[in-house]
Amino acid sequence: MSKICFVDVMDEELLSKYSDKFDTIRKLGWHTIYPESANTANGTDGKMIILSSVLNHEFSLIEDHRNSDYNEESKIKSCFLRYTCKIVDGCLNKCDYCYSKKNESLYLYIDFYRKIRKELIQLDSRYPIYFGSSGEIFMEPIMELLDFNALFTCFSNNRLFFVTRYPENAIHILSKYKDLIKKSMVKLYVTFNYYDAPSDELFKNKLYYIKEINKNGFYCGLLYKPIIPGKNDSYSLLRKVFAIAKKFDIPEICTGFLISKNSELSASLGVDYALEYVNGRYIPAENTRIRIISDLIMLRDEFKIRLSFCHSFLPGYVSSGCLCKLERWS
After folding, report:
1. Phi, then psi, of 9 in degrees rounded to 5
2. Taking the C-alpha atoms of 224, 225, 231 and 235 in order, what is their torsion angle to the nearest 10 degrees?
């Protein structure tokens, strides 16, 4: 399967700064294509990263979720994310349980700094800005292409909330730019759920890097999500997650339930459980959610690890919110 980096930027001065970066990603197996070769790029059957300029588009790089629909949904989901950054827009992972649109390409706006400062002035700096696992900045070759010096300089007075699959890359970037980062302003979750890769070795490897991130003065927890009833929710498996996490001194486990936009998704994953339709989404039925959360609370008390929820859909039943919530940053 081909891997294409399509360069949709006409600024020669800007591109000249990227010659070394392009050499690096070619060594990783990515082919660089320019607009004059657009037909070749459109015909690819593989992955594509589109390097673009903010000057080519009319949109905000920071999405503000303070609209009435979002606020109402937040109350139901028990999730209170306010700002999302779209310097990287899209995801190439294609997880079969994800309700986000699956694309063959993602955009990276390499000159984001031309627009971002003006947007940041309009934000309430108390609230964290989310860089998600969809829009992953620590994956290859995004981490080789993104200007982290500009990123951490532009966001120097903002709280940054990263979710990543690649803690080994995150610790490398955070260490490299530590002089630009206020450690209290950066927090992370590393995602793993035993569904994508049911491997104890891989899990321990991720926990090792979470521990290293924390040892370097940042805050990093485990995001065990999504919980898919019948796949990764058994008490024995959850207990193993807590037990191994305890050995690596992981400060927090955050979790949440599978969400889907259609009722066929759970069946396609090979599971069979009752669904509940809430605010345009299908989720596990309430009795299933309560059972799993009760197990998690018992494990929290046994192992003395902070337990938080993102998308519990049970406001009032659980008290500890994830890093989306403002009080987690005080």
Report:
1. -135, 130
2. 40
Q: Indicate the pLDDT class of residue 36, thresholds 50, 70 and 90.
A: low
Q: At what angle do helices 200-215 and 167-176 cross, to 10 degrees?
A: 20
Task: Give the Cα separation of 98 and 311 in Å (integer).
Answer: 14
SS3 label, residue 281: strand
Q: How big is the CA angle at 236 (ends 235 and 240), to the nearest 5 degrees?
A: 115
Distance CA 149, CA 172 (A): 13
Alpha-carbon distance of 176 to 149, in angstroms, equals: 10
Tell me how far the alpha carbon of residue 282 is from its chain's centroid: 21
Phi and psi angles of residue 75, each rounded to the nearest 5 degrees, phi first: -60, -35
C-alpha–C-alpha distance, residues 149 and 26, integer Å:
22
CA-based R_g, the chain, Å: 20
Residue 277, beta-bridge partner list: 282
pTM for the whole structure:
0.91
Q: Per DSSP, what are the bridge partners of residue 83? A: 64, 129
Tell how strand 281-284 and strand 275-278 pair up.
antiparallel
Kindly give, in sequence order, each residue whose CB lies less than 8 Å from that of residue 2, ignoring residues fewer than 6 positions away. 31, 44, 45, 46, 47
Neighbours of 2 (CB within 10 A): 14
Tens digits of per-residue pLDDT, 198-219? 899 999 999 999 999 999 999 9
